[in-house]
């Protein structure tokens, strides 16, 4: 997990530690992440739509970077917020990329 060991989502099906106010990120995280990738280059990155706060330009930039391997819209969350359903159209932009698209 990137940006700390605490998630702000609080999904009921997940065993990850959650908090509305997690600790600030470790300033060494970019270096530590780079070291981890160097040790295990086949490491996969998965992102959820909500990771981007609706910033579709950021989603597209990550898709073009080649690092994203799994892109996952959380359908239950989308259904609870109709405007978030608009984000789902982004999935169509990934048809030419080697990205697995899943829904949770």
TrEMBL record:
Endpoints of the signal sequence: none
UniProt keywords, alphabetically: 4Fe-4S, Iron, Iron-sulfur, Metal-binding
Keyword 4Fe-4S on entry: yes
Annotated source species: Trapa incisa
This protein's name: Radical SAM core domain-containing protein
PANTHER family xrefs: LIPOYL SYNTHASE (PTHR10949), LIPOYL SYNTHASE, CHLOROPLASTIC (PTHR10949:SF38)
Gene Ontology molecular function, alphabetical: 4 iron, 4 sulfur cluster binding; lipoate synthase activity
GO cellular component: mitochondrion
Membrane-traversing stretches: none
């Amino acid at each position: 997990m990137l940006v700390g060991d605490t998630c702000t989502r609080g999904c009921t099906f997940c065993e990850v530690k959650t908090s509305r106010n997690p600790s600030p990120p470790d300033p060494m995280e970019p270096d530590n992440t780079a070291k981890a990738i160097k040790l295990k280059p086949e490491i996969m990155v998965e992102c959820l739509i909500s990771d981007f706060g609706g910033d579709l330009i950021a989603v597209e930039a990550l898709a073009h970077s080649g690092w994203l391997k799994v892109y996952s819209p959380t359908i239950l969350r989308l259904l609870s917020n109709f405007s978030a359903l608009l984000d789902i159209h982004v999935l169509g932009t990934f048809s030419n990329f080697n990205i697995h698209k899943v829904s949770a």
